[in-house]
Amino acid sequence: MRESELDTAVARSLGELAREGVARQGAVPDEARARMLVALEAERRPSRIWWPAIPALAAVAVALVLLWPRPLSYEVAGRAPSGSYVSAPADRPLSLRFSDASVVELGKSSQLRVEETTPRGARVVLERGSLAVNVAHRESTAWTFVAGPCEVRVVGTRFALGWDPQREQLDLRLDAGAVEIQTPLSPARVALRAGQEFRADLAKRRMVTAEIGAPAPAEPAAAPAAEPAPAATTGNPSGPAGDASLRSPSQQPSASAPRPSWRKLIAEGRFDDVLTEAESRGVARCLQSCSASDLGALADAARYRGKSSVAEQSLLALRNRFPGDAEGRSAAFTLGRLHEERGNAAAAKGWYDRYLAEAPSGNYVPEALAGTMRTTQATAGREAAAGAASEYLRRYPKGIHAKTARAILGAP
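Above: the chain's sequence. Below: its structure in token form.
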């Protein structure tokens, strides 16, 4: 082999090795990218490679492969996992230990799936049961725990999470750190701090945040007769006593404290406070001048308190005034849910379909698909709903509405 051909072969090998390192480890920072470009430039111009530089180029390529941060690995009960699904036996819990020192303990008879690992954390799906989590806090740590349609985002914390897919109920107890919970019940994330617990009952459309150990709140009072009451109520109990039992001292009203946003009030379950402020401003005036965020919060508060007409007016104002805004697109989904609660399946289907067309990758796509599936069956029969059921199962084979989809398709 001539010297120039040997140069070319060596340079090509080094370039392939460098690219392999990038492909396996992800994006390259500026300093590493600069070193890698030396190797790639050498490949493009093999005749200019100097033999003394080859060891240095090889070192750069090997370093990219060996030293670049790798996705976290984990062991299940001290052994390498046999797949992404992990099930605990009926008589004992099961521990998953990650390479960053984080530990996830799966409760008896529970099942989870490790959907993805990255150098910064993992995405863990709790299929059923409970788990206890101790995430090691490091710089840029990012973990996500999924239970049904709910997501818990953490950085470094210790908490217990439970998910019952049959009852569609999520429970979280936060012992240390802080988390944010995203549920289909509200566009706003619920922020939890250490010492609080959270429950989301999706079937009853109800969220509650409380101090750990506080007495369980009573069910909210029925909606006023003048307003059509929805099938269930979501949120903390109404009335001063109920609200006070769910607030820490730092959350009590203060003359000197800045007034919290309506979105923050919604996240804390203080729906009556939002309605009171809206009435003091004037609801009609708010429909014409409130921000998109405030209109969305007002719609949520009205729905959760059974004020269906105020909720619909707020959502329609949101659609008309902010058609290109994320809040405006999400309003289509909420209008679908509102009409479905009223028993108007045809109108609900129209809004669900509009949301899917406007926000094909939005937060509420699984619920909107399920809504289309239900309302199509209600208006046109099971065969007509088969398309929506098949699409739901294709995208969410283990979603909380998969059982309904299979029933429509007549599948086991």
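Residues 3-25 form the longest helix (23 residues).
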